[in-house]
Backbone:
């Protein structure tokens, strides 16, 4: 049975083991009776077993190296991930309320002042809009009949002036809407805090 195992291992020898060994002195205890020449040299049983064991160990070492390489390929990234620390600090609700009230006391005067300024600007814009609307109404109510003293140039000038006032009114309305939106936003911010 031992001979069968040895012979089956001889068949399974890899390319690294060479049965054609060159002539050299052996360190094994076998005598020179096995020596048959360089071409026909056969490995002693114990030597071939050593070679096969060495090949098995080399294959296992190679597989372990591949496994280790695959397992540690992204080691720098993992090291960086593990290095980062997250610190969570738990505070009680009283502390949160205290800081919230301090923040409200600090911000509320500035927000109130901004709201007052926005309301004043809004009132000014409403007055300007009303004045422009009155001018437009007056201009529309006037007949555009060419009078004896009026020339075509004067009519064109009046038309340009009317167009300019209309554009100015539209711009003021847009500014008014923007200020109203800002006032609403500031009021909602104050109510939230």
Residues:
């Amino acid at each position: 049975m031992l001979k069968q195992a040895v012979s089956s291992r001889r068949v399974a020898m890899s390319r690294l083991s060479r049965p054609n060994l060159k002539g050299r002195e052996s360190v094994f205890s076998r005598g020179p009776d096995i020596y048959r020449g360089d071409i026909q040299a056969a490995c002693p049983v114990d030597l071939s077993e050593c070679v096969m064991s060495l090949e098995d160990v080399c294959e296992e070492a190679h597989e372990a190296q591949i496994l280790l390489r695959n397992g540690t390929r992204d080691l720098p990234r993992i090291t960086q991930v593990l290095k980062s620390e997250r610190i969570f600090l738990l505070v009680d609700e009283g502390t949160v309320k205290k800081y919230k009230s301090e923040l409200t006391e600090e911000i509320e005067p500035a927000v109130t002042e901004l709201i007052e300024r926005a309301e004043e600007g809004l009132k000014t814009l409403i007055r300007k809009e009303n004045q422009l609307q009155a001018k437009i109404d007056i201009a529309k109510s006037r007949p555009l009949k060419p009078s004896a003293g009026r020339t075509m140039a004067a009519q064109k000038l009046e038309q340009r002036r009317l167009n300019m006032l209309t554009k100015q009114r539209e711009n003021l309305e847009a500014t008014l809407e923007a200020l109203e939106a800002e006032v609403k936003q500031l009021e909602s911010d104050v109510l939230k805090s």
In short: Residues 1-13 have pLDDT under 50 and may be disordered. Residues 94-192 form one domain. The radius of gyration is 50 Å. The longest helix spans residues 93-141.
